[in-house]
Design goal:
With about 325 residues, this protein is mainly alpha-helical. It has a domain of about 210 residues. Helices cover about 80% and strands about 0% of the residues. The protein contains 13 helices and no strands. Helix 3 packs antiparallel against helix 7 and helix 7 packs across helix 9. The longest helix is centred in the N-terminal third of the chain and has 35 residues. The radius of gyration is 20 Å and the shape is globular.
Length: about 325
């Protein structure tokens, strides 16, 4: 049991590290693609990311690097379409709101996820966890939120984006445990539906937001090179997203997301000489304190649970409880 828990912890650290490195890398690549080369079709680009991810996983399946495990088609279809819709709504939210309000939308995902998991899944979050999340959100808010220009349509789109994103991330964790599938197996089966949703809606949404047509854009060799690099990095991003949520929780994934935001801000200041102020520095430092506290309290509570006497069902080897499988590394592992 100790070896399993140690392996689970090592796998979790690896998943978190992969998520951070790949996400920061794709932000840098996409920033060059969008800001420097003028390719502003974010939703369509995301659909290509998912299509390449599916093709890569299909090759991996043929090479027998993982086992295909079919499960309830309705669950996969609903999950894939919902994920695609949430991505489209987030892009629309950014298009119809100020950058500051969009950052507030992203901050709202954590408390919304906590609320949904508490109400519908009866998950308990201690006062310590709640306090550390509050510190984190305050820090990220100080570092990233600037103007807060409100409008009715933008606010409604942001509300829908938050709800769909929270539900999709909770489903990622729940489906892996319920159907006993790994992150790779879930991503392989759901990515075609996500890609199809965005391939159909992407050109329309991008036209609405940019007044440009993705099909008439001038695809130079440099643009195509950056698109290919972005798609290849996206394979790692998509895989690590499912891996992190499967091994931890949707809330932890959101905390990790804010760490990435702080790293991107710092990277932009140090290497790209982006505008930076003492407010940004203060916000990042406060956010880091919140992340450290969150990690500390999560680790302490996990160790406390591990030291408690095992329930009778666990002693008998009952694997119907998702928490048992999660702690032993039986779920969300590849």
């Amino acid at each position: 049991m100790g070896e399993n828990r140690g392996g689970f912890q090592l796998g979790t650290v690896g998943a978190l590290s992969l998520s951070v490195v790949s996400s920061v890398s794709i932000v840098i690549c996409n920033k060059a693609l969008i800001s420097t080369l003028g390719f502003q079709f974010a939703t369509t680009l995301t659909s290509w990311h998912l299509l390449v991810t599916f093709c890569s996983l299909h090759v991996a399946l043929k090479m027998k690097l993982f086992e295909h495990k079919p499960f309830e088609r309705k669950a996969v279809l609903g999950f894939g379409i919902l994920n695609g819709i949430s991505i489209g709504l987030l892009n629309l939210s950014l298009g119809f709101n100020s950058v500051g309000f969009y950052q507030m939308t992203k901050l709202a995902i954590i408390p919304c996820t906590v609320f949904l998991e508490t109400v519908f899944f009866k998950k308990q979050f201690s006062r310590s966890i709640q306090s550390s999340l509050a510190v984190l959100l305050i820090g990220v808010g100080i570092a990233t939120v600037t103007d807060l220009q409100l409008n009715a349509l933008g606010s409604f789109l942001s509300f829908l984006a938050v709800i769909t994103t929270c539900v999709a991330q909770i489903m990622t964790n729940t489906i892996q445990k319920k159907f006993k599938v790994s992150s790779t197996q879930l991503l392989y089966q759901s990515s075609p539906y996500q890609a199809a949703t965005l391939l159909i809606s992407g050109p329309f949404l991008d036209k609405l937001l940019t007044n440009q047509n993705v099909f008439t854009f001038n695809y130079t060799t440099q643009v195509l090179t950056f698109i290919i690099i972005s798609c290849l990095i996206a394979v790692s991003v998509n895989f690590s997203t499912f891996l992190v949520i499967g091994k931890t929780s949707p809330v932890t994934y959101q905390v990790l997301g804010h760490l990435k935001t702080c790293l991107v801000l710092a990277f932009g200041y140090i290497l790209l000489h982006d505008p930076f102020s003492w407010r940004n520095i203060l916000g990042i430092l406060i956010a880091l304190v919140g992340m450290i506290l969150y990690s500390y309290y999560c680790t302490r509570e996990t160790q406390k649970k591990a030291s408690e006497p095992a329930p009778l069902s666990q002693v008998k080897g009952d694997e119907s409880d998702p928490l048992i499988n999660l702690e032993s590394g039986g779920k969300g592992s590849t």
